[in-house]
User: Fold Flavin-dependent thymidylate synthase from Pseudodonghicola flavimaris.
Amino acid sequence: MPLSPEQQAEIDDLRARPQPTLRSTAPGMEGHLYTAYPVLDHGFVRVVDYMGDDAAICQAARVSYGKGTKSVSNDEGLIRYLMRHWHSTPFEMCEIKLHVKLPVFVARQWIRHRTANVNEYSARYSILDREFYIPAPEHVAAQSTVNNQGRGELLEGAEAARVLEILKADSARAYDNYEAMISQDGQQGLARELARMNLPANIYTQWYWKVDLHNLFHFLRLRADAHAQYEIRVYAEEICKLVADWVPFAYRAFEDYRMGGATLSATALDCIRRMVKGEEVTQETSGMSKGEWREFMQVVG
Ligand SMILES: Cc1cc2nc3c(=O)[nH]c(=O)nc-3n(C[C@H](O)[C@H](O)[C@H](O)COP(=O)(O)OP(=O)(O)OC[C@H]3O[C@@H](n4cnc5c(N)ncnc54)[C@H](O)[C@@H]3O)c2cc1C
Assistant:
């Protein structure tokens, strides 16, 4: 079960007591507040709180530009201008606080994003739940032969079944031993802070994660990208849907300039200029390495 009965009771209580506010709210986000959206087999993402909306981004930008913003009077145009010119601080005026339940190995990738505030479930204080991420068969794949940092073809038949069996058996055995070690049944029981060290990285943890919109976009740019590991990408994709409803103008600009856009080197730009003039540019005449050329062709091809 993604949410514990206590967590659900807390949410029900909050929902039963809506409060009037003078703060600006984003209608698209109000509909998402508190709802836990399932991710992977036991995980979820839910919005606990948020601050700001598209108008807050424009309001902050207009403080810095003053009358100069009259030339870009429409909010979406102004937000696109800010995104295009990397004027990022107005986006920091919006914040989001998420409650995320995720496997520990995903949390290790996620925590590398240092520009957020995190409060994690304490396995020193509390007993972890018996919940482990076991990939669905369509995600059990072999090591990629072209990308050292990724997976390739799916494992099939007996090999896939064997792998899944190992994952399930090891998780169950590790948790049985965890319970046995902390058990106080006629004995002292090992401290929880020590017993946890024997648990595998596919066990679930939970945290509150608060971040501003500028840094959230940076996270989404990297983790919703096709090159990100599937298990973190699905969380990023779920968050993308929330952000699209929260700040629709900013999200559209992000999709256009960041997710859908590309950064080109001066050499690559020169190649494009030569191609536009009708020159046939090849890898050999481009000034790029084979790897750079392959990636360049993926962008322009
Ligand atoms: C596909 C992929 C593969 C990866 N592979 C590896 C890997 O093999 N090994 C590995 O260790 N990591 C790996 N990472 C993690 C990666 O190196 C970054 O740590 C992670 O993406 C967080 O990025 P960030 O530092 O820009 O984000 P944040 O920590 O959110 O920082 C945002 C920005 O703030 C600034 N900033 C924050 N803190 C500091 C600081 N202390 N000093 C200076 N500037 C700061 C930087 O400009 C930074 O870009 C991988 C990431 C991805 C997406």
Observations:
- The mean pLDDT is 92.
